[in-house]
Amino acid sequence: MKDLQSAQFSAHTGYTPEEIEEIEWERGAVTRGIARYRSSLYSVNDDGTTEMRDLGDLEPGVQMLRELVSNVEPAVINAVAEAKQKLSDHKSGRWENWWFPLLSLEPKAWVIVAGKAVLAQSGQNGQFSRSVRSIALEIGRNGKLEVEFREWKRSQNEKARTTGAPNWWKLMQSRSPEIDERAFKKFKAKSKELDKVEWSREMRLAIGTKLLTILVEHGGGWFQFALKRKPDGRGFFKENVIELTPLAQSWIKGRHRGNELSRPWLVPMLTEPKPWTREVRPDKETEHEPSEYQDERGDDVGGGP
After folding, report:
1. Domain count across the chain
2. How would you class 168 by CB atoms within 10 Å of its CB: exposed for 0-12, middle for 13-18, buried for 19 or more?
3. Which candidate, 61, 77, 195, 300, has a CA 20 to 30 Å from the CA of 155?
4. What is the pLDDT of residue 231?
5. Choice among 72-76, 121-125, 249-253, 284-288 with the minimum mean pLDDT
C-alpha cells in the first residue's frame, strides 16, 4: 500500500520515487531536530525527574540579555551621573540607599547582574513573574558578591606581586573549570581573607528596586510591574511582581519555534543534489539559488510558508 501511495504521489507531483524518499528522509531529520531542541529546554534532576531550565540559560534569554545591555546601559549611566551629582551636593539632604552601591560597579556590570536575576525563571506552567522584593534583594546580593570578588582578586594579585604569597585567585582559576559563587567562597576562606563589603539589607533592596525600575522603563518592552493576588493559607494577599510582558512571551515562543526548525538532525543525502539553475530576467541575467523549499522547477517540496 505504501509503495502504491508513493507511486500515485510521484505521478501527481512529477517527482521520482528516489526524490520522494529524499523528501521524507529530510522531513524526518527536521522532526528529530525539533525533538532534540525541545528536550534541551529541560534539565534532569538527581532523582530522574525533569524540570524546565531557566530562561536566562536558553538561547532566547541570552539574546534578551544582549539587547538589555544595549538598551538599559545608557539609563544606568544617567543614574550614576545623578548619584554622583547628589553625593557632591551638600544640600541634597538625605542620601538614597542605592547611590553608594550603584557606584561600586560599572553600569554594564549592573545591567548584566539585574538582567540575569530577572531571567532566572523557567516559565514553568506559563508563569513568568517573581516578587519585586525578593528579586531586588537577589540583585543587591549578587552585586555585592561581584564587588567582593573583584576586591579579593585585586588583593590576591597585589599580595603575590609584593610579598610572594600564594595567589589563591590564580589557583582557583587552575582548579575550577567554572568560577562560581561556591568556588569563590571556598578559596577566599582558604586565603584567610574574611573582609566583606558591608551593604545593609536596605541598601541591597534599594539598588535592586532601582535597577528593576530601570529595566521596566528602558528594557525595550520586555518587563512590567503588576500587582498579583496570592494565597497565604488564611486568604489572599497582594504582592508587587515583575513579569514578562505578553509581547516578550510571544517573542520567546516565536524564537523557540524558529530554533526548532533551524536545527535539524544532520543526515547524509540519499540522492544527488540537483544542479543550480540560471534565472533569466528581462533586464538582467543572474545566478539564482533555489529557496530551501523549492527544487529547480520552482515546485514546493514540503515545508515553509
Report:
1. 1
2. buried
3. 77
4. 77
5. 284-288
